[in-house]
Amino acid sequence: MNKDPFKEYIRESEPAKRDKGYAWHTAIGLQAVDGLKTSEYLAYTAVRNIEGEISFEEANALLKTYYEENPTLDASDRTEEADKVSARIAALLSERAFSFTPNEYLSIHRKMFSGIYSHAGCIRDYNITKKEWVLNGATVLYGSATELRATLDYDFSEEKKFSYKNLSMDEIIHHLAVFVSGLWQIHVFGEGNTRTTAVFFIRYLRTLGFDITNDTFAENAWYFRNSLVRANYNDLKNGIHETTEYLEVFIRNLLLNENHPLHNRTLHISGTFKEIEKPGIEIVKPDIETLKPDIKNGFQPKTASHILKLREAFPGQMIFGRSDVMKVIDMKSSRASELLKEMVEHEIIEPVAGHGKGKYRFRQYEG
Fold first, then answer.
1. Helix axes 15-29, 40-50, angle to 10 degrees
2. Do 170 and 277 belong together in one domain?
3. 329 and 205 in a common domain
4. Residue 115's pLDDT is what?
5. Fewer Cβ close by (within 10 Å): the C or N end of the chain?
6. Domain-located, residue 69
7. What angle do CA 53, 56, 57 make, to 5 degrees?
8. Alpha-carbon distance 95 to 90, whole Å?
């Protein structure tokens, strides 16, 4: 089965298949925010659901049985999580009932991660930091554990009072960006925060009259997360300030079917790259001498460009191999092997066990 069998369903004239195709495509795409990949079995099960052969309940039951019969032996392999959470997200995105309340937000997390995380549906009781590639290893300042419920309630009450009446579309999009970035920054949950926020946001947008059936989330989930990071980070002494401009571009594609390029490299605080690439504006190529610290000066410009393209294609902890490199960069197998070897030698990527021979992932930048 093709890696992505859902795009054609999104274009279906039959509404039921189109909506289910969107739900599954988005659900699977959202796993990229945590560097997770789903299985071929999930794709097969999803198509059966879209075609009306099985219900969402039956799809979840099949996945449960499948992993009982095929237990994962490698603790680092989170495919089971990706599969089960994808099926639950697809079901949630197919529901029409919705309440704009903090409890609905918590309920979505519980439904997505029950049996996967012990804290499913619970507000975290500890403080967190997360090193971000887009911030050169720095972290966003997340909500304090002692104030999470009060902060969550406040954000919801303020949004409920807000009126979109007489606003231009630009003003609406800006406000939505401010709201969702603020909700995400609270970081109510210890894990699964971005996926939960994305599902809640999509369902909320529907109540505002937006019919979302495109592939913006499915294809750009990592950009969505990085734009949330940039909307909540300040380093004023170095001229870095929080901005929703990147998130607004994402939302324009999502709601208005615009086609702005969404490249993660444009969000990096190093300033190496053009801040936002817009249609009709010439794209500025990066200065190879000032690339990320882990791309060594010893690389030729063309090789460094290949590495950047791979980093964007396989963000976070996503796992890839030689065939993936060949597909992304359109190169022969021998050259792909050489490139992987060079990247390992320069400690840009690291081998990953438990996924077959010749699998790698990018090392996490530590600042």
1. 160
2. yes
3. no
4. 95
5. N
6. yes
7. 105
8. 9
Same domain, 135 and 264: yes
Indicate whether 113 pLDDT > 70: yes
Q: CA-to-CA distance for 317 and 1, rounded, in angstroms? A: 24
Domain count of the chain?
A: 3
Same domain flag for 259 and 302: no
Better-scored residue on pLDDT, 171 or 346: 171
- Mean of all residue pLDDT scores within the chain: 87
The domain spanning residue 154 has which CATH number?
A: 1.10.3290.10
- What is the number of other CB atoms lying within 10 angstroms of the CB of residue 234? 12
Structural domain contains residue 296: yes
CA dihedral sign, ordered 119, 120, 121, 126: positive
Residues 119 and 250 in one domain: yes
235: which strand partners? Answer: 240
Which structure tokens are listed for 20?
């289910």
pLDDT at 245: 97
Of 284, 312, 339, the one marking the end of a domain is 284
CB-based burial label for 22 (10 Å; 0-12, 13-18, 19+): buried
Of 71, 95, 119, the position where a domain reaches its end is: 95
Query: Strands across the sheet with 359-362, in order?
Result: 320-321, 359-362, 349-351
For 64, the 3-state DSSP assignment is helix
Using DSSP bridges, classify how beta strands 359-362 and 349-351 pair: parallel, antiparallel or unpaired. Answer: antiparallel
- What is the C-alpha separation between 179 and 183, in angstroms, rounded? 6
pLDDT, one tens digit per residue, over 168-198 is: 999 999 999 999 999 999 999 999 999 999 9
Q: Is 169 exposed, middle or buried (0-12, 13-18, 19+ CB in 10 A)?
A: exposed
CATH of the domain at 324: 1.10.10
Strands (E), the chain: 320-321, 349-351, 359-362
Q: Which two tokens stand for residue 129?
A: 């930091």
* Amino acid letter, 208: L
Domain extent for 339: 288-362
For the stretch 278-294, pLDDT in tens is 333 333 333 333 334 44
C-alpha gyration radius of the chain: 21
